[in-house]
Amino acid sequence: MQMRKLVPAVLVATAFAFVLTGCTETGPTQNFSGLPDEEEIATESEGGADQGLQAFWLQEGSQIAVAISGSSTCPVVGSHIEVVEPEGEGNVVEITTRPISSGPCTMDFVPHTSVFWTPDLVTTAEPLTVRVGDQEIELPIK
Known about the structure:
This protein is of the alpha+beta class. It has one helix spanning 2-23, and strands at 30-33, 41-44, 53-58, 63-70, 76-85, 92-99, 110-117, 128-132, 135-139. The protein is globular, with a radius of gyration of 19 Å.
């Protein structure tokens, strides 16, 4: 009798876990040429623009935008966000990138922005370190 009650409970728990996993957004919600509109920006990183990397808190901290400057015809975009160190242990995310085109590429230097949902394991109440390749930039407390 105990086994009959346990099997449905396990099935429900497994189904619930799959639903939660399916809702986890790790890819970008948007990719676009240029920078976010000023009215969308809650806080932006200091410095970094001269290195071709900028980061922004958007929508009161519910989203993170990363702008990577490079060729306008062969932009590099964010493809995945991962929490490397959760809040209280460093508050660090890493953005994986990929090029959109293999060429030919222009020699201009323009920003291309990728927007991600802020992962649950990081906080706006601590500075957030954003890693992109071998570069790091810090978003201040929101």
